Amino acid sequence: MIIKKLHEMGLRSDHAYTAAVVSIGLSFLSWTASIKGEAAGTDRADRWGIFVGEWAPTFFGLGLALAQYEKD
Q1: Whole-number Å distance between alpha carbons of 18 and 34
Q2: Of 1, 18, 21, 20, the residue nearest 69 (C-alpha)
Q3: What is the pLDDT of residues 45-67, one digit of tens each?
Q4: For 10, phi and psi rounded to 5 degrees?
Q5: Range 9-18 average pLDDT
Q6: Residue by residue, what is the 3-state secondary structure of the chain?
């Protein structure tokens, strides 16, 4: 039901896959920015990188669901 609604709104599997790859890059970028820009140290930078990095599997899963819907 949600996948159908997202598809009707114009979201395609390619968009979700692209968002997943971009979130991997953002994870690295946020880790780098945090480690260089904050005095909090590596622990905080690691948490930022992991937080953003967790988005990628969600987008990949969404992409798979949309690809399956597009196939049907």
Answers
A1: 24
A2: 1
A3: 777 778 888 899 999 999 999 99
A4: 105, 0
A5: 96
A6: CHHHHHHHCCCCHHHHHHHHHHHHHHHHHHHHHHHHHCCCCHHHHHHHHHHHHCHHHHHHHHHHHHHHHHHC
Q: How far apart are CA 69 and CA 67, in angstroms?
A: 5
CB atoms within 10 A of CB 10: 7
Q: Which two tokens stand for residue 49?
A: 């990188």
pLDDT of residue 72: 72
Are 32 and 7 within 8 A, CB to CB?
Answer: no
As a whole number of angstroms, the distance between CA 39 and CA 51 comes to 19
What token pair was written down for 2?
């949600």
Using the Cα atoms of residue 49, residue 51, residue 52 and residue 53 in order, give the sign of their dihedral: positive
